[in-house]
Amino acid sequence: MNVFKKVSFACLLLVESCLVWSKDYQTTMFGIKSDGITMNTRSIQKAIDFISENGGGRLMFNVGRYLTGSIHMKSNVNIYLSEGAVLVGSTNPYDYDMEMKNWYALILGNKQDSISITGKGIIDGYGRELANNFINQVYSGVIKDPLKLGRVANRPMLLYFRECTNVKIEGVTLKNPAFWTQTYDQCQNLLIDGISVYSRAYWNNDGMDIVDCNGAIIKNCFVNATDDAICLKSHSAESICQNVEIRNNKACSSASGIKFGTASNGGFKNIKVINNTVFDTFRSAITVQAVDGGLVQNVIVDSLRSINTGNPIYLVVGERRAGHRSKMDNVHISNVYAEVPAGKPDVGYEYEGPTEDNPRNISPSGIVGLKDNKITNVSIENVEIIYPGGGNPYYAKVGLNELDSVPEMPKAYPEFSQHKELPAWGFYVRHADGVTFKNVKLTALKKDYRPAIVLDDVNNGTFTTIKVTEPNHGKKEFIHAYKSTNIKK
Questions:
Q1: Strands 427-446 and 375-389, how do they pair?
Q2: How would residue 3 be classed by pLDDT, with cut points 50, 70 and 90?
Q3: For the residues 88-99, what does the mean pLDDT come to?
Q4: Considering only CA atoms, which of 201, 164, 166 is closest in space to residue 181?
Q5: Domain residues for 260?
Q6: Which of 360, 407, 423, 485 lies at a 20 to 30 A Cα distance from 397?
Q7: Mean pLDDT over residues 364-375, rounded?
Q8: Range with the poorest average pLDDT among 81-90, 95-104, 261-270, 344-353
Q9: Distance of alpha carbon 168 from alpha carbon 139, whole angstroms
Q10: What predicted TM-score, i.e. pTM, was given to this entire model?
Q11: Is the sign of the CA dihedral 384, 386, 390, 393 positive or negative?
Q12: What does the H/E/C string look like for 403-459?
């Protein structure tokens, strides 16, 4: 068993062992009402405080609708939502507290230990109504907010936990937040298991955000979000998101399925993404970004299935913070099957991804470093991707004699579409050192004017057992290398 496996297994055992509840408390004991009308904020908070002060236990929510504003989790407390129990978020902006002078949320936790939310019940944030009420208060001049793109910048999440240890979220359904669904910020020993997330009430609604955590397992979840579904972030240059395993999940999104970033100040280390499915997703199935000065190192992506997704794989290095150089090293991607559609993959969603951001030709998967900051040691193995092909050379063509005209874009918002038209239909690899492709199958369903793979400033590359299928390709080369050295085909 390698070191990373030992760390993940130890974290899981620790979370499971610490969250053992000695006593159950019924909500009726604290006068908490299940009629969906009574505001229960102070009663629920009293229950949480009482249980924590008396050695811990479970606060049992039975069938009913429990209306509340912000509540604060305390150590050794489990909120248990039985099947049929719904914790309902208030639609009044003034019923929400801000934690750390930064984030609003329905359920907050700061520096607590052994906290959990479990059961088969629901947390419903009524986010669309809540977000619109925030906007109305901004227009009235009461709440000060920049209204970026016509949206309130900081709206309540469902869950925000910061610097908590031994956190467990299991079985419940989280739906309709006004903003990101759930954020775990600098937490240790986090387990998210078997939850369902429906986060489509408003714009920018991430499914889950794991921020600078050490030791996290996300498994057996279903996530449907308007923004990134499962997202790792690093907000602090002094921290790093590390020892994380994302396993056996299904996700769809109007942005990316599984994403590292965009915030990547400290970076990501020792991350495993195993046996996940991404479908009907506008952007990338898996995107790994190092654009804010952080380190990305030791990433394993294995057994990924991507169906009707705009882009399968995108690795990128940028420099959005002047003088802060990121680094990406040792990324291994294997056993991937992907189908890229000719049309928009999230068409029909109420909140679709922005079409204006996309090039007109289908983009390839990408491994894109910077001229003075190469991505190092990437392997792509046992990967099959089916593209629609049919690239039109009259759409802002960048030909093989014009590769130097593809912009560097170190400060751009990092997405696979950032470079617009690219000169490959399968993989575009630029500014990389130590790249291995083994047993890679690329299929274009229609003839494309571009080669399947373009290498631009790639050193020490090995490309073996590459199979390319494209109708009427003639004598076109499938792998084009430019300004590249020590390439073995």
A1: parallel
A2: very low
A3: 93
A4: 201
A5: 3-488
A6: 485
A7: 97
A8: 95-104
A9: 39
A10: 0.95
A11: negative
A12: HHHCCCCCCCCCCCCCCCCCCCCCEEEEEEEEEEEEEEEEEEEECCCCCCEEEEEEE
172 Cβ contact list (under 8 Å, min separation 6): 81, 117, 118, 119, 120, 121, 122, 123, 195, 196
Assigned token pair, 307: 């169906």
Out of 14-18, 91-95, 351-355, least confident range: 14-18
What token pair was written down for 2?
């390698």
Q: What is the pLDDT of residues 192-234, one digit of tens each?
A: 999 999 999 999 999 999 999 999 999 999 999 999 999 999 9
Distance of CA 337 to the CA centre of its chain: 19
Tokens of 160: 């925000």
d(CA 19, CA 75) in angstroms, rounded, equals: 10
Overall domain count for the chain: 1
Q: What single-letter DSSP state applies at residue 271? A: E
DSSP-derived letter for residue 151 is B
Cα(198)–Cα(207) distance, integer angstroms: 8
How many of the other CB atoms lie within 10 Å of CB of 328?
30
Residue 268: CATH number of its domain:
2.160.20.10
Q: Average the pLDDT over 445-463 and give the result.
A: 97
User: What's the whole-number average pLDDT of the chain?
Assistant: 93
- One-letter amino acid of 372: D
478, two tokens: 């499938």
What are the angstrom distances between the C-alpha of 261 and each of 264, 353, 396? 5, 18, 29
Neighbours of 105 (CB within 10 A): 28
Residue 110: per-residue pLDDT: 96
Rounded to a whole number of angstroms, the CA Rg of the chain reads: 24
Residue showing tokens 């950032």:
418
- In the numeric block, which tokens belong to residue 363? 């983009």
The encoded tokens of residue 201 equal 């009430």
CA nearest 80: which of 57, 104, 64? 57
Q: CA torsion sign, 481 to 459 to 372 to 255?
A: positive
Distance between CA atoms of residues 214 and 199, nearest Å: 25
Mean pLDDT of 285-290: 98
* Nearest-angstrom CA–CA distance, 48 and 212: 27
Q: Give the model's confidence band at 149: pLDDT under 50 very low, under 70 low, under 90 confident, else very high.
A: confident
Token readout for 454 is: 């373009």
Cβ contact 406:369 at 8 Å: no
